[in-house]
Design a protein that fits this description.
Blueprint lengths: L2 H4 L2 H13 L6 H10 L10 H24 L4 E5 L6 H5 L6 E5 L1 H7 L9 E5 L16 E6 L8 H14 L2 E9 L1 H10 L24 E6 L5 H4 L4 H11 L2 H4 L2 E9 L2
Parallel strand pairs: 1-2, 1-4, 2-3, 4-5
Antiparallel strand pairs: 5-7, 6-7
Helix pairs in contact: 2-3, 2-4, 4-10
Length: 263
């Protein structure tokens, strides 16, 4: 498996850990997969604080996805760079077709634990390329989830992907977390993904740089809202907020929402 694919085990571990602790989200599938796979993580990638952060990040994306599915009952859902995430089980209803997209070897691994249905498909492909999108029916609206993926795409690759999505769908809403350029520079030395062999990542400071004629920035979201951080108690909450919810953290990680609509 490519090194970038190995990063999928870091959030899987985090979600399994917080689920076992009864924090932020319930993810029985993550617990099941981690119990069987237990990819040997080391260093910062096994940090309890990072696990809390990744659990909260996933819960924020879950909350947004559920809201968008209510607002767009006829939309299809695309989870790009899905890894081993079980969001499809946590939030999908029977009214939305859902497509999980990732590298072919990741999808092959997913198929050990997830079953396709008429409304749920796993699509192998590299989001930097065009061919994977051909297997997804074009439709009026798409809800696009990009969690933990944008940092592996430079700005031109991100723009190319977003342009292809805009051309494929009449309308889309999208949520994407990003490193800042500062975080990308520092990641060479201090990022847990280094522990699985990844050293090259990219940052985005200005969300407007990804806009085009039909794709526009909507707003920035809080990465660590109090509804989730307040589930931690005492010293744990204080330490976590200092590490992941303080001023320094907000200079490193951003969460951007976009939308597009054809004229």
């Amino acid at each position: 498996m490519l090194n970038v694919n190995k990063t999928l085990y870091i959030p899987l571990y985090g979600k399994a850990l917080v689920s076992r602790k009864g924090l932020f989200l319930h993810d029985q599938k993550a617990e099941e997969i981690w119990a069987k796979e237990a990819f040997p993580l080391k260093g910062k990638s096994r940090s309890k604080w990072l696990a809390y952060y990744l659990g909260i990040r996933s819960a924020v994306f879950d909350q947004w996805a559920a809201q968008q599915m209510k607002a767009h009952p006829d939309a299809v859902v695309l989870h790009l760079g899905c890894g081993m995430d079980s969001r499809v089980l946590r939030v999908r209803d029977e009214n939305h077709s859902w497509f999980d997209v990732d590298f072919p070897d990741v999808i092959a691994e997913r198929k050990k634990y997830f079953t396709e249905t008429a409304a749920y498909r796993m699509v192998p492909g590299d989001v930097k390329e065009e061919t994977w999108l051909e297997s997804i029916p074009s439709s009026g609206c798409a809800i696009v989830i990009m969690e933990g993926i944008s940092m592996y795409l430079n700005d031109e690759e991100k723009k190319g992907l977003l342009n292809r999505l805009c051309n494929h769908f009449d309308h889309l809403v999208l949520l994407m977390d990003c490193y800042t350029t500062l975080a990308a520079r520092l990641s060479r030395y201090k990022n847990p993904i280094n522990d699985v062999g990844v050293t090259k990542v990219y940052g985005t400071d200005d969300p407007h740089t990804l806009e085009n004629g039909s794709f526009t920035f909507v707003k920035e979201h809080d990465m660590t809202p109090s509804i989730f951080t307040h589930q931690l108690q005492g010293m744990e909450r204080m330490i976590f907020r200092k590490l992941y919810a303080g001023k320094i953290a907000k200079k490193m990680y951003r969460l951007f929402e976009y939308k597009s609509k054809h004229p």
